[in-house]
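Lab meeting prep.
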Amino acid sequence: MAHRSWTWRGGSGLVAALLLLSCGPGALSPADAAIQDVLVSSSDYLELTPPARRAQLFAELGAQADSQAREQAIDSPALVALERQGNLIAVPLPAAGQLLDGGQASVDVETSSDPWPIDPRESLGGQSERERALAVGSALAALLGADGQVVIQRAAGAPYAAALLLGELRLNPALLYLASAAAPEPKPRPLASPSDAGVSCASASGAAFAWLIPLLAWPLRRRAIGA
């Protein structure tokens, strides 16, 4: 995974990077400004944003994160970042489907200082933020190489999408809404082959006529008793 670390001469790289994450960027291009506007938006606002626009914003967010991972400047915060050996590293954003599929990392969404809402959201496919955060957080924690159980902190209004810091994954809920709109539709199940259909029909026919067997056998049984 391509990435570039932030360094800060004369001080702690992690402390400087944390200050950047909390303060947000300075002058931004129109595309960057659009992403920042979405990241600091409320969940209700994101639900009113058309799905096609949210999918487009996810693509733009991914492009910017990939660019930052290749060439990261200290004067702009990473959109997706992880802490490694005292430095904060900008990393690419995984695909939406990869995020929603979840991962094998052990995560905790129950102890977030800002509780994850549990009400179902149409823009999240009928799931709650907490359910989606569990999947997306687990996928990110696994992809970023987190060790042990990771607490998924709800970072609403943060100027970044996700940051793995000191054993905690700070996850902006805006990422859940963007990824949900950008994820590919579930693949349709393959149609049954003719042979499978034949077996199914035969089984169904056998079950349908099984009740006739005792009735057909009853006259023969009566003849045997009369004899």
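Slide two material, second protein:
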Amino acid sequence: MGADVMGSQLRDWLALAQVLALMGSVGINVWIFIAARSDSRWQAMHESMKHADSELDTRLEVIDRHLMDSKAQFDKRLSILETSVDGMPKHRDLLQIREQLARIDKSVGALDERSEATGAAVNRIEKYLLESRR
């Protein structure tokens, strides 16, 4: 039992030492942080970061303006393209035009046949009339 009591006390002392070490570490880190913030190098770095943020904001504004201009140009071009496409015939319209052209081709072919027949008849009549005059 004496060994158990001594082991228990040792564990308690070790736990206390761990808590003290942790608190000491936190305290040192807080002290370093506070000391660093009051250091002139930290102040210079902070000012440098402010300047860099300002430059970055300026660059981002330029990029934003450029993107907005590009978007406006793109929207304008897209609008022109949509207007152009709206005026173009659709697939259905082209099919109707093909059908009409096919019908016209048939009609013209029939007229050609009739005009050839008519031309041949006129030639025969002309030949007859010329021969009968002699």
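Talking points for slide two:
The chain is about 95% helix and 0% strand.
Residues 94 and 120 are 38 Å apart (CA to CA).
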